[in-house]
Amino acid sequence: MNIFKLSFRMLRRDWRAGELRVLTFALVIAIGGMTTVGFFADRVQLALSRQGNQLLGADLIVFSDHPLAPRYADEAKRLGLAVSTALKFPSMTGKGESNLLTEIKAVTAGYPLRGTLRITEDFSNVSPEATRVANAIPAPGSAWVDEKLMVRLDLHRGDKIEVGAVHLTVDALITQEPDYSIGFLNLRPRVLINAADLPATKLVQEGSRIGYRLLVSGESGDVENFRRWAQSHLMLGERIEGIRDARPEIKAALERAEKFLSLAALASVVLAAAAVALAVRRFTQRHLDGCAVMRCLGASQGSMLRLYLYHFITLGLIASGAGCLLGFVSQEALTFWLSGLVEAELPWPSIWPAVHGLLTGMVLLLGFALPPLLNLRSVPALRVLRRDIGMPNTFSITGYALGLAALSILFLWKAGDVRLGVSVIGGFVAAIAVFGLIGWLLLKALTHMRGHTAGAWRYGLASIRRRATSSVVQAVALGLGLMAMLALTLIRDDLLQDWRTSLPPDAPNHFLINIQEDQLQPLAAFFSQHNMERPPVFPMVRGRLTEINGKSIASGEYADIRAKRLVEREFNLSWADEMQSDNQIVSGHWWKKGDSGKAELSMEEDIAKTIGIKLGDRLTYDVAGSVFSAKVTSLRKVNWDSFRVNFFVVTPPGVLEKYPVSYITSFHLPSQQIEVTNQLIKAFPNLLVLDVANIISQVQKVIEQVTKAIEFVFLFTLLAGLTVLYAAIVSTQDERIHEAAIFRTLGAKRRQLAGAWAAEFAILGGLAGLFAAAGANALGYVVGEYALNLSYTFNPWIWLTGLFAGIVGVTAAGLMGTRSALSTPPLMTLRKV
Predict the structure, then answer these.
(1) Helix axis angle, 21-53 to 301-338, nearest 10°
(2) φ, ψ (nearest 5 deg) of residue 624
(3) What are 330-349's pLDDT values in tens digits?
(4) Are 62 and 213 in contact (CB under 8 A)?
(5) Which of 212, 265, 310, 714 could form a disulfide with 64 if both were Cys (CB 3.0 to 4.6 A apart)?
């Protein structure tokens, strides 16, 4: 207890004396930025997920091919979730003598739970201004139809349509439905009815192909709890999906956003570690004399260690708590700023980001403070008489290895992705080793040039040589900080450019499916007649996977629900000479032009991984009763958020042409030309027109919001980088005050000292800038290519930017930070010696 009281008294004394200013500032800013990023990431991810869930009609859906047990709805209600049900099945819908295969959806009150269902009673005007939000579901005895059914059956409000054994009154036209176009399954004209009318239709019979859905929504934590519970209770034929499972393009956008935000948090951790290491180094150097005196008075090494350990633990708790408070205040301001971007009420933040901030602060502080503490306890008592005896370095290497290990654990924890965490860890560890070695060699080479320079540069090189180890540490720390910011800039630019390229304003928003070969020319003429560019048309063959390497497969062999569904369904197969621009080979090779007719195929990597298909496997497909086999010669990464036509499986030309084929295309249709859709349906009644304009709009909103989120997070990284710069400059301030006193006593002028220090800072800044540019390019490539799936773009300007930022930034900050050293009277300094 006495040691603890003494430690607390020392802490108060050091605080009043300003000894802890740099260290506290570094911790508060680092933890404040980190907790703000944590709160921010949680809220943005939740907001974006909710925005995406509007396309699903719920936060989560339980699908089944049989009536769902009541336990699912009961558990959802017990957790406080909103619940609704929907039954979907194909059936003939008739008006008079006309009949059409449609998709019937019977819903209960509350549908949809997310998003909006828009309708209009004026069948002649479907413009957005003429529609309204449906505040309820169709009344019993009535039906709402979509535009395709209205056109094909020539329906008007008040008409009667026959659905099974019942006649329903057409009451409204559906113009927007949240869960429409989730995948390419909702292709038929559709009718929305009240579930109370379903028994009267007599369509629900034994063996009927009916899809049962339970929709749930609520707070994210409750939804996740329900997902975990439901996942463990799923039976055969049941599955559970969120928006990420249903739309690959939404999933891609959200995952990239989350990974980048995690990367920003990692950059904050790196910068915090560099700042803390520099600040602790200065603190321990300033306490050598005090430790020597205590050793003279009989303090044991164990007592010294406990004394400073309590000192740093108390400081860490106070600084980390202040940082968490700063993060909380900052995220409140951020919430206000974000509220204008997200059309949803943001939930109150959880306590976990603050807990993470406290743990991170303590791990960072103790991880990098422990090595100097272990050395402080061994300060010899002889230093009281001989001030030239410095701090022993017995535990430096092993101690800092402990700090790096603690930092690595934080990386993996904050990344939330092993691949991303390992990439960043490996990059920074390699950077420290390479920067340290190159920095030492370069400084040695530069000091040999001292004889060929004069004036300020000669003194600057001499000063660097005199503090060689310290200079290398400063250059590496500054290089790491600048590298983190430059790498984040590179990745941010690549990420945003990749998004803008993949989803331009004229991205395809309509798909045409079931095009027959004899309709290709008339369809081209239709586009020309309406002054529209003819879109590329792709062949499509439907086939079911039956064998892998000669062994029959069945859905029961797979534990993964998605794998079961993929094995049960038919694949869309196609052929092509050249690979599409939004595809990338990740394994194997694309075929050559002369390989036409070879039994080869290219498969999308994610679906191959799900089913367990590897490069070189031979797959057998059943196409309309005929079979063919082909070898997997390449795996592709597909950019699904481009909204262009893409296929899971592609073969060379000459393999699938003999099988029944239809064609598919996608095109962009401006909102002011929406009437073209009706004309297209009338001219080609067999075509299935899939309108994904709502999905395009939603993904564009997601990208816009994530872009603003990235820009905001980047401000915290810059602030953390300035903290490193400040800590690096202040770490040598005591030595500079002492040097300034001696030189000014010998007649040196302030202008001469400032020039000499400017030369020293410029050299250190130049080294740091070169380190940062090289490291940023390497780290940007690794993280972009292997963690975020971005195509890396070499940016030559990053070298000039790094060099300029290093020289100008470090020189300016150094001169500002050393003003007090030039202003301190020499007599005050010399009296302390």
Answers:
(1) 40
(2) 50, 40
(3) 777 766 665 544 444 555 66
(4) yes
(5) 212
